[in-house]
Amino acid sequence: MEFCPKCKSIMVYKGDKVVCRKCGYEKQADSDEEVVIVSKKNKEEVPVIEGENIKTLPTVRVVCPACGNKEAYWWMRQLRAADESEVRFFRCTKCGKTWREYD
User: Which pTM value belongs to this model?
Assistant: First the structure.
């Protein structure tokens, strides 16, 4: 990571140059540096459980926010970083509404 010598902001790679995001200062990128670009556009989609497989999931007593039914299927998924807790998903046994619960 490089910082701008003028304004001390983070500089980003654009082609063969390094450009300051704040003031626009540019310099030629060093050819011996290894550059790793991380994309925020590659988000993981949450799979939705459908079909007959839903009936094999365990059930729990919890109130459905849509219809007030007191039983739902549940499962857990790791959606955030590994050092954060998993997310619990619930699906109502009566109306089929799916919702999440975070710790």
Answer: 0.49
